[in-house]
Amino acid sequence: MFGHHIMLPTLSRATFCVLLFAGLFNNAVADTPANCTYEDIRGTWIFSIGSGNNDRTVNCSKSFTPVRQSKFQLTYPDVAVDEFGNQGFWTIIYNQGFEVVVAGRKYFAFSKYVGKTSYCHETMPGWSHDVLGRDWSCYSGKKLGEAIIKEQTPAQRDNSLRFSHRVNSNEMVEAINKIQNSWEATHYPQFDSFSEEDFINLAGGHSSGVHSRPKPAPLTEEHKAIMQSLPKDFDWRNVDGINYVSPVRNQGGCGSCYAFGSMGMAEARVRIQTNNTQTPVFSPQDIVECSEYSQGCAGGFPYLIGGKYAEDFGLVLEKCNPYTGKNGKCQTDPKCPRHYFTGYRYIGGYYGGCNEALMMQAIHQNGPIAINFEVYRDLVSYKSGVYHHNPSLTANVGFNPFEITNHVVVAVGWGTVKTTGQKYWIVKNSWGDGWGLDGYFWIERGNDECSFESLAAESFPILSTLS
Ligand SMILES: *[C@@H]1O[C@H](CO)[C@@H](O)[C@H](O)[C@H]1NC(C)=O
Ligand SMILES: *[C@@H]1O[C@H](CO)[C@@H](O)[C@H](O)[C@H]1NC(C)=O
Ligand SMILES: *[C@@H]1O[C@H](CO)[C@@H](O)[C@H](O)[C@H]1NC(C)=O
C-alpha cells in the first residue's frame, strides 16, 4: 500500500454533480467552498480535542471546549505519525478536507472556510472517534506554519452561458457523430425544456477549466501482472448468467449523484456478499437530509458517504426515507434498522494511489466501485459506444471545454471492443434507465479519460441479519 509512486495530487476545483432530467434546477450545485490541496494539508497539525466518551450523536457544529491537544505529522504519501511516534494513515478527500487514522482513532474534518474564503491551515470542527465507533469527541485542527488563505476565483460563467444552449442541440449531436465514431450521440427530448439558466445550474458554477487532479499511479510490473490475470471482459450484471447489480435510478434535480453512486456500490456489494439473498435498495434521501459528512443536494463524496457515513451511521432502506430529491430536515424513520459497511478506502489506498489495474482488481475481487470523474456536457447526449470527450468539439461547434462538472457513478465491470480492441469501463449512471444503454454507459479505459481512473472508492458490507 505504501509502495506506489504517485503524482502529488494538486487539486483546484470544488466538486459538482451533474443534474439531469429534471425540469428545474434551483439548487446551485457545489460542495463546501473549501479548496485545499495535498500540499496545503501536508505538514504538522495540532488537533484540539473535546471531551470524549460521547456517542455518535455528538453535535460537533456546536462549540466545544478542547480538553487536550494532539500533534500529527502528515507526510508523503499517506503516512501520519502522532506525538508518541504511532504511525497511521491519512488522506485528503478531494479538496474538501482530510482524514487521519492513528492509534485506533479516526479524525475527519472539512477544511475551514468562511464565505468563499478557504483557510487551509485550519479545519472546521470535525469528528473524532475510536475505530470501533464507541467513543466520540469533537476536534479542530490547526497547521503549524504560515496561514494558507485562498479566495475562490470567480467562476467563468460567461463562457458557459455563451455556449450552453448548444448542449443537446441537433447541431451538437450531429457534430459529435461526424467527428468520431467511437460513440453515438442522440438528442434527448427531456432536455428541450432546459433554459440557459438550467444549464448554468446544471454546470454548478464551477470556476477555472484547468482541472488538476492527481494522475493515476503509474502501472508497475506488479499492476500489469494483475491485469494479465483478470478476464478480458467482466460485468457484475452477468457473472455466469447472474446479475448482482441493483436497478438504475434517477437522481432528478438534486446534486445527489454522490449518494446514488455510493448506494449503487453498496447495494451491489450486499448482493455479492449474500449471493443475491439480500437485495436492499438504500435511501439516498437519508444521505441528503441526515448526513453531516456531505452537503445535501449541494454535493458530497463517496469516500465520506458509501464509506465513512456507512461505517459510522449505517445506511437505511429506501422505504425508511423515500427519495424526494430535496434538502430538508432529517425525516428518516428512527426505528429503521441500519446497515453498516467498513474498510472504506480510496482504491490504491489513498487519494492519488489509484489506477486501472487496481480498479479492475477491486471490482473483480470486491464488487462495483464508486467513481468520481469529470463530465463534459457532451456526455448528456450519449446513446451508445465507448464515450470519450473529443476536444475538437470546441473548434467545431464552440463547445466550451471549461464546461466540466464532477459526477459520481458506479463502475460495474469492463470490456474490450472486439473489432477495434478499444478498452472501456461499464458504468452505471443515475439519470434513469431511459438514458444511454438502459441507464449505463461505456467510457474509454486505460488512459484516465475524464479522470475516470484517479478517484475511485470502495467499502465493504458488514453482513446484516436485519433484512
Ligand atoms: C447542532 O448544533 C447546531 C448549533 O447549535 C444546530 O444548529 C444544529 O441543528 C445541531 N444539529 C443537530 C443534529 O442537533
Ligand atoms: C483552488 O486552488 C487552486 C490551487 O491553489 C487554484 O489553482 C484554483 O483556481 C482554486 N479553485 C477555485 C475554485 O478557487
Ligand atoms: C448462489 O445462488 C445460485 C442461484 O440461486 C445457486 O445456484 C448457487 O448454488 C448459490 N451459491 C452458493 C455458494 O450458495
From TrEMBL:
SUPFAM superfamilies named in the record: Cysteine proteinases (SSF54001), Dipeptidyl peptidase I (cathepsin C), exclusion domain (SSF75001)
Enzyme class name: hydrolase
Catalytic activity: Release of an N-terminal dipeptide, Xaa-Yaa-|-Zaa-, except when Xaa is Arg or Lys, or Yaa or Zaa is Pro
Signal peptide range in chain numbering: 1-30
EC number per UniProt: 3.4.14.1
PROSITE patterns: THIOL_PROTEASE_ASN, THIOL_PROTEASE_CYS
Residue ranges annotated for the Peptidase C1A papain C-terminal domain, each copy included: 230-460
Pfam families, per the entry: CathepsinC_exc, Peptidase_C1
Protein name stated in the entry: Dipeptidyl peptidase 1
